[in-house]
Amino acid sequence: MKIGIDKIGFATSQFVLKLQDLAVARNIDPEKLSKGLLLKELSIAPLTEDIVTLGATASQSILTEADKQDIEMVILATESGIDQSKAGAVFIHGLLGIQPFARSFEIKEACYGATAALDYARLHVASHPNAKVLVIASDIAKYGIETSGEPTQGAGALAMLVTSNPRILSFNGDAVAQTRDIMDFWRPNYSTTPFVNGVYSTKQYLDTLKTTWAEYQKRFNRSLEEFSAVCFHLPYPKLALKGLQKLLTKELSEEKRSQLTYNFEQSIRYSQKVGNIYTGSLYLGLLSLLENQPQLVAGEKIALFSYGSGAVAEFFSMTLVEGFEKHLRTDRLQELDTRTPVRVAEYEDLFFAEAILDETGSAIFSNYDNQTYALTEIREHERVYHAVEDQA
Ligand code: HMG
Q1: Whole-number Å distance between alpha carbons of 352 and 358
Q2: 162: confidence class by pLDDT, cuts 50, 70, 90
């Protein structure tokens, strides 16, 4: 039985900051961001958008009422959770109106979480072939003003429906994971922004790629010649390009090298305009490839490299299934251009705003008309979410 991704949805926040403007404000050469990091824009989320609203919006864009009756699990991968106890998946389950006898929970290992979630979903479907599992990767990446990571921030969510007989991609059962107990990037409970050993983190990313790929080749006896594309976790696209270059050894044919390079360029198009969305970043790369490379055909294999700081890495592959192109969109780049641009001062106000609670632990928010779902208030420490049309 084939198991894999039947539908993929994406949502990002409503505001956008041009990195050209950020470079001017921070007095750095714009080419450092556009060529040094390969980034153009980053999505900015206001207080009324969080991992719950983004995750619910991405999910709502793909789910039918019938799907909502068939979903047996909602797994939310995130590292920007809004509560230490209650899973964001429970809020999303409620907002979407998924049937009650479902299991909903959150999963965490930095940017790697969604890969573990997909594998858990696969295992569930393997033993319950009629089940559907909703896997959501939702994050808001904040590094802080004037940090080296600032241009790599972002906000967004991917929603993937895992089923048997999937209509987009099937898993090939060939995953190799690696765990290393390192401190390259972490966020203690008392801090709203992460601590980052930036250069060390890039070395770890590239070294876990090299060693996980070597172990994958050893276990499965596969060459890159078998793949049409490699998608990478994209903290910023330039690092993934360095990763690709490490894999493009001289044993590969010239034709394969140019195919993998061209397809890599298609896989970074969305991230270049959204920034790092942590758990969803690899899957945003996958979506970007599928929606911007019309020459892909059913049967082709795509390799994926997942990396989460701390660190866990995984190399695995998926195969495109017949008719996959019918379940994708071709207007997403234009849609990204409808986000509202903000100037640097507005970005600083919006992105780093914190809810000011009164003595009862309450705050009421406004200005969420452009959202599908919104955090509308905090009432005595309870987060209150609504579908925006419910508010009229
Ligand atoms: P930086 O200050 O941008 O570093 O910080 P840089 O000075 O090395 O410059 C970057 C590149 O721009 C270099 O290219 C420069 O040469 C180039 P490279 O040598 O690497 O090819 N450059 C220019 N290019 C054109 N014109 C110019 C110019 N000037 C310089 N004028 C750093 C980079 C990664 C440290 C920073 O962005 C950072 O701290 N980021 C956050 C951490 C991160 O993203 N790490 C990646 C691996 S860890 C990971 O992927 C996990 C993560 O997603 C979190 C999770 O798992 O939860 C982060």
Answers
A1: 19
A2: very high
